[in-house]
Every structure is written in C-alpha cells, then in structure tokens.
Amino acid sequence: xxxxxxEEFKATGxxxxxxxxxxxxxxxxxxxxxxxxxxxxxxxxLPPEELALVIRLRRVLHALETGAAxxxxxxxxxxxxx
Length: 82
Hints:
Elements: H1 2-10, E1 15-16, H2 21-25, E2 38-39, H3 42-45, H4 48-62, H5 66-78
Antiparallel strand pairs: 1-2
C-alpha cells in the first residue's frame, strides 16, 4: 500500500533526494546519494551555461563510487567562499 501511495505522489514532486545508509555509517554527511538524487525540469530552472556545468559535474560524479562522489562534492563545496 505504501509503495503505491509513494509512486502516485512521486510524479508530482520536483525533486528526488536519496539518502544512503552506507554513507551515514561511514560518517559522511549529508548522506546523500548524489547519483540517485535529481531535480525535474532543470532546463527551466537554470540558464544554459549553468545547466551544462551541472550535467558535466553529474557525469564526473556518476563515474565514481557513491562515497567517493560525495567526498569529492563536499571538498569542492568547501573550497568555495559561500
């Protein structure tokens, strides 16, 4: 029953955020599976040049193991000013 309700509401959402228990057990926070998480209709949210960068970033992260992808993303975010 819960799966049916989830699938029904899943299509109405704009974003899907997948948490990963293995990442949290490794004490990697936020424990987000970046490969399985996504936003619908990004082309409407981002200008074309930013969308191209997001797609490129996703391809790099997709090639990595889940934990390594999250660690790389966190390191890159830490190196920014904001």
